[in-house]
Amino acid sequence: MSNDGQLLGVALIIRHGDRQEFWQNPDTYSPTATQLTPLGNQQEFQLGSTLRSLYLNASSPSYIANISTDLFDQNQIYVRADFGGEDMVIYDSCVSVTQGMWPVTSSNNITIANGTTIVAPLGGYQYVPVDAVDPDEDVSLEGFDDCNTFDDHTTAFYNSTAFQQKAQESADFLNALKPYLGGRSNSLQNMWNIYDYVNVQSVHNSTFAQELPSTFEAQARDLANWHEYNVFSSSNLGGIGNIAAQAMLPTILVDLSDIANSSNPTLLTITEISYKPFLSLFNMTGVAAQNPELAGLVNYAAAVALEVRQSSSGQPTIRFNFKNGTDEDFVTYNFLNQNGDVPMSTFVDNLAPYAVNTTADWCSVCSNSQDRGCAALTLAEDQGRASAHTRISPVGAGFLGAGLTVAVSLLMLGALAFFGFLSFGKRRHSRKIHSDDELELRK
């Protein structure tokens, strides 16, 4: 399929920058808090500057037509960031990205009644609004957390023959690595924490970096790649290993629909996340299968750019671009077993059926009746059955209950018809979607 077509807009998915050490429970992936480093801020700022040169520069071949290139325009751009277990790391990374995309400008000023012109502080710093997505209220960016069936999937992986074989194969290396781990477990089950410790120390501890054998960090990374990809993927698109992407799909699909819709002013969206949804997304789209080097952890400040383009036939298409950190350029990848740009309708047909669209869906898929709004939903449903046996709309945690209309067609995002939606984050008024809306694609 041809790779030409006018660029209508872009949905960006970005990983946070370099941070201090971060520990996760290897069974449940429950996290501990950490902090973004100045290096992480710089990585994200550098990424933002690159994105600005690509998409906000009128002389760039990837310029988004009619987008504001100087001042941030909240009608055209929507920014959200995971505000989860890493504490401020992802949110602060998002702020740094926006600093690079919309730098200080004297145009950020106002003339008050007495005729005085006031420029914003720091030479015209632009305070870009970022929606902080609280995972306790919104499961869209951390669908794996508190997901009981996902925990079962992880346990099954650890008990699998493949895992036991890999543990045996890697035992000599992990034993050799143990003296460098500061007392941490060197079991393969703990591989993500092992690699994270080695990586953080190699970057920020000069003594450690000098003493660690030269091949050990790369070897630890290879094992961590294998470990994490198997945890956060399933061969079946509907498998629970893909929950990180399944929960995020409604966000992605709505963003793409907004961009493709000529009556919607949205031209650019930014979603800042952890590494986990990348693995599931690469698996579900087939990108990792065609490019095995992507079947693993993405680097700090990695970014997926889903470009919405207008094809010669008039149908919007999606181009899958990925930049694996600050040392890499954007590369265009084939996906969904097709070559080149993929019709948006194909993207929807292939992925929307596996989206977890509501809090009720998530509670059901994850077999959770207590956490993240599930308890209020369960209580409301029980009260409804006990009172009148009629369906009600629970209002406990900013969600809309379990009703969902699913109807995927070539020119409609009917699968998103209930995106009022899932307590999936705060949306500005121009992006609010009611339960009876149908999301039209540009024809």
TrEMBL record:
Coiled-coil zones: none
Spans through the membrane: 399-422
UniProt KW keywords: Membrane, Transmembrane, Transmembrane helix
Keyword Transmembrane helix assigned: yes
Name of protein: Phosphoglycerate mutase-like protein
Domain of life of the source: Eukaryota
A Pfam family recorded for this sequence: His_Phos_2
Keyword Iron annotated: no
Protein family: Belongs to the histidine acid phosphatase family.
GO MF annotation terms: phosphatase activity
